[in-house]
Design a protein that fits this description.
Layout: H1 2-9, H2 13-31, H3 44-54, H4 61-120, H5 124-134, H6 138-152, H7 157-184, H8 189-201, E1 207-214, H9 224-230, E2 235-241, E3 247-249, E4 261-267, H10 271-278, E5 279-281, H11 286-292, E6 297-302, H12 313-316, H13 318-322, E7 325-331, E8 334-337, E9 349-354, H14 356-366, H15 370-374, H16 378-392, H17 408-423, H18 435-458, H19 461-467, H20 470-495, H21 500-510, H22 514-524, H23 528-555
Antiparallel strand pairs: 1-4, 1-5, 2-3, 2-4, 6-9, 7-8, 7-9
Length: 556
């Protein structure tokens, strides 16, 4: 039976993987249980790990440290790859506001910790550990430990103990705060989803169909090419129904006459301008155009050839070569106007209108092979992780601070993932990943991270709470967690009118808390929390690490 004893209580690789698998499987299963209609999801993995850690189950320090960091890297990298394409546009629209609110949460937490330090007399080293646990920021804990060691030449154990005691309720406290905000403001999730969809439809890049009849004399006799140069707007003329009842696939040489009907793809903000310039809107749906021009068919074709990644639509010369029109490009569920300068990416779906024979030829040019998309682009993932770790390891010196500050193993990969998913096509990197593959990486990463943190914090957890003032530390941690979130949550919802799903992502990102993001994503059923999380995460991570070091350097 030595083999069984070694498997359950040893320090080998088999024991490590067995224990982690058990913690993750049991935690996920328990997380499905709902109490008062609320389930904690994969957050229960953390608490199962704590229980087993308290019972004496351990993993070799180096092994568990590897699994924890690698899991966190996989999680944040997957999040960055998903939200990267919309990260910069979201930052322009509301990112400044979100980051200011996130900074408010960070600084209110620090001020609260300082006040508790002076009122209760808890040593600042311990308080920084409690602060790091309350805001679930492991890099902040590491930065504080390193700063203390550099100043005093020894490691202060209460920093880690404060973190371990405050962390579990920090995780649950963040989630409970978002739930409390929901009930205080009587928020309807269905209503928030409707508002979110309405905001998406107002997106300037959203493709909008438009049927017009030519009435402006200034347009009579002009070609489609001349019209495009006269109207400084984003639009594509797909088909023209001439007064002689002939329907023509629009090209740059197509001439417009009085009374001609045109089918246009444009964006919502441009509708009024184009209508005023060309003529009048007519009640004619897209389906009616398809019925009339029976010689043409419309089909969506997948771009799957990697050599097309990063090319502009005009470079393909599909209209002149094959006599077809591309009216829309669907990317990540959003229809974009197919203007000539639109940069194509692998995974885009282009709406092609033309003859059946011409469309078959275009399919060969674009690929249209689902099998290619199902093949994972593993090289891009590991290039991104390599560059992310390299970036996160670069020390940044700040005047007045003796120790350099780093983005760390979480911040670096997140920043690189956002940049690669947005600009990777310029360097011929295929960044497309199926949603199922992205979710698989994300879930594996976060569950590994939570299991490792739980097992590490479990050993001696009860003793710390009972005999070392841990109960009071838990209370201080709860105050540090909840007070800043409630204040900024109220400001964000009442004054800034933030969508609840965006606010959930802001709260999770400001606390650099992956479990809270996982809960927010499950609740929302969309990417809004992930977008706001990624928007505030880089700056917040930097501030969390910086403030943890500053508190040690200024108060020790």
């Amino acid at each position: 039976m030595n083999w069984l004893n070694e498997l359950l209580w040893g320090q080998g690789i088999g024991h490590s993987i067995l224990l982690l698998s058990f913690v993750i499987a049991l935690g996920i299963q328990l997380g499905k249980i709902k109490i008062f209609g609320i389930s904690l999801g994969i957050t229960l993995v953390l608490f199962v790990g704590i229980v087993l850690g308290q019972l004496g189950f351990t993993i070799n320090h180096d092994v568990i440290h590897f699994f924890k960091e690698f899991g966190l890297i996989l999680f944040v990298y997957s999040v960055g790859m998903q939200v990267g394409p919309s990260f910069f546009s979201s930052f322009k629209k509301g990112g400044i506001t979100l980051n200011l609110l996130a900074c408010g949460i960070v600084f209110l937490g620090v001020v609260t910790a300082i006040i508790i330090h002076y009122v209760t007399g808890v040593p600042m080293a311990t308080m920084v550990g409690i602060l790091s646990g309350a805001v679930t920021n492991t890099p902040g804990l590491g930065a504080a430990q390193q700063a203390y060691t550099d100043v005093n030449g020894s490691l202060e154990p209460t920093i880690a103990l404060g973190y371990a005691v405050a962390y579990p309720l920090g995780v649950i406290g963040i989630i409970l705060t978002t739930i409390l905000i929901r009930y205080v403001f009587r928020i309807s999730l269905d209503k928030e989803n409707e508002n979110l969809l309405h905001d998406v439809e107002k997106n300037a890049n959203m493709a909008t169909p438009l049927s017009l009849v030519v009435k402006n004399p200034a347009v009579f006799g002009k070609t489609v090419g001349e019209l495009s140069s006269l109207i400084n707007s984003d639009f594509v003329i797909s088909r023209v129904w001439h007064t002689n009842k002939d329907i023509e696939m629009a090209s740059s040489s197509t001439i417009l006459h009085d009374g001609d009907k045109v089918f246009i793809i444009t964006t919502e903000p441009e509708v009024e301008i184009i209508t005023m310039f060309i003529g009048e809107v007519i009640d004619m749906d897209r389906s009616e155009w398809l019925k009339m021009d029976s010689q043409f068919i419309a089909r969506r074709i997948l771009i799957t050839k990697s050599e097309l990644n990063g090319k502009k639509l005009a470079q393909l010369k599909l209209r002149n070569t094959y006599g077809i029109n591309i009216t829309r490009v669907n990317r990540a569920g959003v229809d974009l106007v197919a203007n000539p300068n639109l940069t194509l990416q692998v995974g885009d779906r282009v709406n092609v209108v033309g003859s059946a024979e011409a469309i078959k030829k275009v399919e060969k040019v674009l690929g249209n092979s689902m099998k290619r998309l199902n093949e994972p682009n593993v090289i891009t993932i590991f290039i991104g992780i390599f560059l992310g770790i390299f970036l996160g390891s670069i020390p940044m010196m700040i005047p007045g601070i003796p120790q350099p500050v780093k983005l760390g193993l979480a911040g670096g990969p997140l920043v690189v993932a956002i940049l690669i998913s947005r600009f990777g096509y310029k360097y011929k990197l295929v960044t497309y990943t199926t949603m199922s593959a992205n979710l698989m990486l994300r879930e594996i990463g976060i569950t590994l991270f939570l299991a490792c943190v739980g097992i590490s914090a479990g050993e001696g957890f009860v003793d710390t709470i009972v005999n070392n003032g841990g109960l009071a530390w838990i209370g201080y941690g709860c105050i540090i967690t909840a007070l800043p979130l409630m204040i900024i949550g109220f400001i964000g919802r009442y004054f800034c009118k933030l969508n609840y799903f965006t606010l959930m992502g802001l709260i999770a990102g400001s606390m650099t808390d992956p479990p809270a993001l996982a809960y927010a994503n499950t609740t929302a059923g969309n990417d809004a929390p992930s977008v706001s999380y990624a928007t505030v995460y880089p700056l917040t991570m930097f501030l969390r690490v910086l403030t943890a070091q500053l508190l040690i350097l200024f108060f020790i």
